[in-house]
Write a structure and sequence with these properties.
It is built from 2 helices and 4 strands; from the N terminus they run βαβαββ. The chain is α+β, with helices and mostly antiparallel strands. The strands form 2 sheets. It has a two-stranded parallel ribbon with strand order 1-2. The protein starts with 10 loop residues before the first strand and ends in an 8-residue tail after the last strand.
Length: 89
């Protein structure tokens, strides 16, 4: 799935009120999310929103709770899966 494919589905991000602008900037500019952004205060709240059909939530890594009725689909941009590079200094 590409960000273009998801532009009509709200994107759910976990962020405190202080972090919302930074998260919005990252996901819209770097990842390319074009959707309306909905914020959740916790991961549990975000998962409940996804289960309730309120939107999609970008996540990384493997599922730590496979009992949830949530399907993970790779997000692609330009033909390849989007990956983050982490650097330690």
């Amino acid at each position: 799935v590409s960000p273009e494919d998801l532009k009509h589905i709200p994107c759910i991000l976990v962020a405190s009120k202080q972090q919302r602008k930074a998260e919005f900037d990252y996901y819209s500019r770097i990842i390319g999310i074009q959707s309306e952004i909905i914020y959740a205060e916790s991961l549990e709240e975000a998962r409940l929103m996804v289960i309730g059909g309120k939107g999609f939530m970008p996540v990384e890594g493997q599922s730590e709770n496979s009992q949830l009725p949530i399907t993970r689909i790779p997000l692609e941009n330009g033909g390849g899966q989007i990956k983050r590079n982490y650097c330690a200094f």
